[in-house]
Amino acid sequence: MFVKALSDFSRGVALRHVWMHHAYHSIHSKYKRTMLGSLWIAGGVVATSLALAIMIGGIQGQLIQSVLPYIMAGLLCFSLSSYVLNEAPEVYMSAASIIKNHAHPYSYYSFESLSRTFFIFFHNLVAFYLMLALVGSLAIPHWSILIAIPVVYANSFLWGSLAAMLGARFRDMRFLLPFVGQMLFFLTPVFWIPTNMGGWRTALLHFNPFYGLLEIVRSPLLGEAPPAVAWNLSLISLSLGLVFWLIFFGAFRRKIAFWV
Predict the structure, then answer these.
(1) 3-class DSSP assignment, residue 83
(2) How far is the C-alpha of 252 from the C-alpha of 8, rounded, in Å?
(3) How far is residue 90 from each of residues 87, 111, 119, 241, 245, measured CA to CA in Å?
(4) Domain of 200, in residue numbers
(5) CB neighbours (10 Å) of residue 3?
(6) What is the pLDDT of residues 3-49, one digit of tens each?
(7) Whose CA is closest to 27, among 123, 149, 97, 95?
(8) CA distances from 5 to 122, 150, 245 (A)
(9) Which of 230, 214, 255 lies closest to 76 in space, CA to CA?
């Protein structure tokens, strides 16, 4: 069972030149023949960040130079961790016709979908640092970003593959999981500060793996070392994801073609 899961994974990795090309091409083709091209992607993030920074900064009496980088980095990083809930459930269903007619490894579809999310993230990083330079808050990324990105990628792949299986087997999950993602957007400190939370509400941090995955990337982007609780949550999530992926992906991967 484990051998089949690992074999599917290795065959998917071997096709990286294919799924990376398809992931890039799907983003490029979406904005083909538009005036701004892929700048529309960054434009949405910048506009949302500015609106939240103006509102949150006004409520909390903070300068936009301090609140804008925090909020914009939070939006960028949450888009990575929330891939599991927002995009992964549709991975196998959106590729149903290909799955039924081609013998690609199932990990191929997860890699392609996840790579699109990361391509957009890196594209938006350019806009992020341009905005930081404009407001005078530019910071050198902390070295831990080199560890954080692979940890988030691995987490997203493992849990995303499981979410894709759930979405194929139980069609309601394709709508339930994005709904959960919307709730977690507000329950995770994307734009609010964790130290402002007290009492029983601190459980939103200490038992929220999305906070860990968000913070181990956001803190380095802002030039800071991530807190220990964020690393603990991320590594626990990674360990559990690997165990569940080996068990359930290995056991049910051959049924995916019948589910879609």
Answers:
(1) helix
(2) 12
(3) 6, 13, 18, 19, 18
(4) 2-259
(5) 9
(6) 888 888 999 999 888 888 888 888 777 767 766 666 677 777 888 88
(7) 123
(8) 29, 20, 8
(9) 214
- CB of 8 closer than 8 Å to CB of 107: yes
Q: Which two tokens stand for residue 223?
A: 């030039």
Which parts of the chain are beta strand (E)? none
Per-residue tokens: 217: 């990337």
Most confident of 36-45, 93-102, 116-125, 149-158: 149-158
Q: Which of 47-61, 70-84, 127-141 shows the lowest mean pLDDT across its residues?
A: 47-61
**What pLDDT, on a 0 to 100 scale, did the predictor assign at position 37?**
63
**What is the DSSP-derived secondary structure letter of residue 104?**
-
What's the number of domains the chain is made of?
Answer: 1
**Residue range 168-179: average pLDDT?**
90
CA separation for the pair 257, 260 (Å, rounded): 6
The 8-class DSSP code of residue 246 comes to: I
What count of residues does the chain have? 260
Task: Report whether 200 contacts 190 (CB < 8 A).
Answer: no
Contact 93, 172 (CB under 8 A): no
Evaluated on CA atoms 89, 91, 93, 94, the torsion sign reads positive
C-alpha span between 101 and 84 (Å, rounded): 26
pTM of the model: 0.91
Determine the average pLDDT of the residues in 181-190. Answer: 89
The single-letter code of the amino acid at 187 is L
Which of 64, 62, 60 is closest to 50 using CA atoms? 64
CA pair distance 54, 67, nearest whole angstrom: 9
